[in-house]
Amino acid sequence: MLETFALYLLLGAIAGVLAGLLGIGGGLVVVPMLVFALPSQGVEMSILMQLALGTSMAAIIFTATSSLKAHHKRGAVRWDVVWRISPGIVLGTFLGALVASRMPTMALKIIFIVFLYYVALQMFLNKKPKASRTLPGITGMFGAGCTIGGMSSLVGIGGGTLSVPFMTWCNLPFHTVIGTSAAIGLPIALAGTAGYVVGGLGNELLPPLSLGFVYGPALIGIVGASVLTAPLGVRLAHSLPVNTLKRFFAALLILVATRMLVGLL
Predict the structure, then answer these.
(1) Of the candidates 12, 14, 90, 67, the residue with the CA atom closest to the CA atom of residue 180
(2) DSSP per-residue string spanning 34-100
(3) Where are the transmembrane segments (predicted)?
């Protein structure tokens, strides 16, 4: 049990750095690692992905909070954008989590693997959408929020891999995009956690110390480390060659996705 908890602490430390460094909630690392770790604790395969996704969402509440505070201190959060996109984010994420709670775990794994390959490709190519427009109006922001939130709930992430390209496309400065993405991660995580908790209530296959599809021991270990390392990621984002780090992370994502794909086959 101590070795497992140490693994959760390590996952949390990595997730925290990534949250600050790349504007993501760490779910791209946390979810696959939970998928690998949870079966050793007797978690049934039929709820494996739901438990990993729900726990990842709950952990992102804390990593996103720590990261957005650090970015806010640097004046890198566009709060007007956060308020405008949040209604769609909350609705899309909550409904997406409810849908995911009832999906076959095999389907969720396939969605996650495809998403990992997509993110890795984007990072390798370092492709950014052309800043060719301004932020949309109320309806457009609501639709964008629903889309970002719904997809984020299906893969257990804080939305940075989707919100960053969207805001870049809308001509926001990149340092502001990263900080605002971290702030948007909070309503995604709150709504996603609520959806996975509600979706998992009463499930007889859940391990002890679970609240819906949120596994308490993993959450505590991940959060305990991530809140300490998220500010470090923010500092690194302002001092290291992020493009090089992104390519390294992309290679890691490809390895993880391939490992999950082999296990699936």
Answers:
(1) 67
(2) HHHHGGGGT--GGGHHHHHHHHHHHHHHHHHHHHHHHHHHTT---HHHHHHHHHHHHHHHHHHHHHH
(3) 7-35, 47-69, 81-100, 106-125, 137-157, 177-199, 211-232, 244-262
Q: Are 184 and 151 in contact (CB under 8 A)?
A: no
What domain count does the chain have? 1
In tens digits, the chain (265 residues) has pLDDT values of: 666 778 788 877 877 777 667 656 567 778 888 888 888 888 889 999 999 999 999 988 887 887 788 788 888 889 999 999 999 999 999 999 999 999 998 999 999 999 888 888 877 776 666 666 778 888 999 999 999 999 999 988 777 778 888 888 888 887 788 888 888 989 999 999 999 999 999 899 999 889 999 999 889 888 888 778 877 777 776 676 767 777 777 787 788 888 888 877 7
Integer distance in angstroms from the first to the last C-alpha of the chain?
29
Distance CA 103, CA 217 (A): 24
Cβ(48)–Cβ(38) below 8 Å: yes
- Residue 148, judged by CB atoms within 10 A of its CB (0-12, 13-18, 19+), counts as buried
For residue 157, give the 3-state DSSP assignment.
Answer: coil
Residues 6+ apart with CB under 8 A from 262: none
* CA 20 – CA 74 distance, rounded (Å): 12
Instruction: Judge residue 89's burial from the number of C-beta atoms within 10 Å of its C-beta, 0-12 exposed, 13-18 middle, 19 or more buried.
Output: buried
Q: What is the pTM of this model?
A: 0.85
Helix (H) or strand (E) holding 214: strand 214-215
Asked if residue 250 lies in contact with residue 124, where contact means CB atoms within 8 angstroms, the answer is yes
